[in-house]
Specification:
Blueprint lengths: L8 E4 L5 H12 L3 E6 L2 H11 L3 E5 L5 H15 L5 E4 L5 E2 L8 H29 L2 E6 L3 H4 L5 H20 L5 E6 L4 E2 L2 H4 L1 E2 L1 H14 L1 E2 H13 L4 E2 L3 H12 L1 H20 L2
Parallel strand pairs: 1-2, 1-4, 2-3, 4-6, 5-9, 6-7, 7-11, 8-10
Helix pairs in contact: 1-2, 1-9, 3-4, 4-6, 10-11
């Protein structure tokens, strides 16, 4: 079977920046045609311009099911057949508040983009892929989905949902010729902190950690597409993320207690800086 990421008819959400833009550019480099979808059309157009004739920019708010349905139809019209690779990447950042302090409006905003956006993408495109009998879905999650970092409740919940949905979908599509891959990185050098709803102190810490430990979006995307071509379900690209994953699964209670203690000590130290 030919590699799924090569010569694909791809739809990438959140393609206006960061990981989404890197996916769109790399898929085009691998010979594909790409629908670059983003809630900000000007950003999507910038990505499509970088690619050239092999790309088209489309506005789409993934939190809105009707807009995702329209996206699929636009893709079919442009490709003249259904897309065979879907990258559900669109998402937003949130952090800096404890449960009970984070406004419900922020919960709705984060879950709308990060979780419902992926649910909508899978709901709309999976039947089309089943009809094709081949192709793939890549869902962009986060290590936050299993690491459960304090003061990131809405983000953690949204990404945990993406992980569970991806694993469920992979089981349902087993043997169909359709692969499912879920990406779960820690820090990637993108604009997610600057574009998110994160308080200033938490954002400053996140920006520093991103600079120190973050991978480039291009490196993450290349690893993910190569893994997808080999039919791998999970992509946890950083070594420290894989260590967290194993520790959480092996020693869940000590892990959670140590994480909480470490966070409180770090928070107290930062308040005196």
């Amino acid at each position: 079977m030919a590699a799924r990421s090569h010569n694909a008819r791809a739809v990438v959400t959140g393609a206006g920046s960061g990981i989404g833009r890197a996916f769109a550019i790399e898929l085009a480099r691998r010979g594909g045609y790409v629908i670059c979808a983003d809630i900000d059309l000007s950003r999507a157009e910038e990505t499509a311009t970088r690619i050239g004739r092999a790309a088209r920019a489309v506005p789409c708010d993934v939190a809105n099911l009707d807009e995702v349905e329209a996206l699929a139809k636009t893709a079919e019209e442009w490709f003249t057949e259904p897309a065979n690779l879907v990258v559900n990447n669109a998402g937003v950042g949130s952090g800096g508040h404890n449960v009970g302090d984070l406004p419900i409006e922020d919960w709705l905003w984060v879950l709308g983009a990060n979780l419902w956006g992926v649910v909508h993408g899978c709901h709309v495109f999976t039947p089309r892929l089943r009809a094709l009998g081949h192709g793939g879905i890549i869902n962009v999650g986060s290590a936050a989905g299993f690491a459960a970092f304090p003061q990131m409740s809405a983000y953690n919940v949204s990404k945990a949902g993406v992980l569970a949905l991806s694993e469920t979908l992979a089981a349902e599509l087993s043997g169909t010729g359709i692969a499912v891959t879920v990406l779960a990185p820690t820090f990637v050098k993108t604009n997610v902190v600057r574009d998110g709803r994160i308080d200033n102190r938490a954002a400053g810490v996140a920006e520093r950690l991103m600079a120190w430990t973050g991978m480039t979006a291009e490196a993450v995307v290349e690893r993910t597409l190569n893994a997808h071509d080999h039919g791998r379900l999970h992509v946890v690209p950083q070594l420290h993320a894989r260590a967290l994953w194993q520790l959480k699964r092996t020693l869940p209670t000590p892990y959670t207690r140590a994480l909480g203690l470490g966070f409180r000590l770090a928070d107290a130290a930062l308040r005196h800086i």
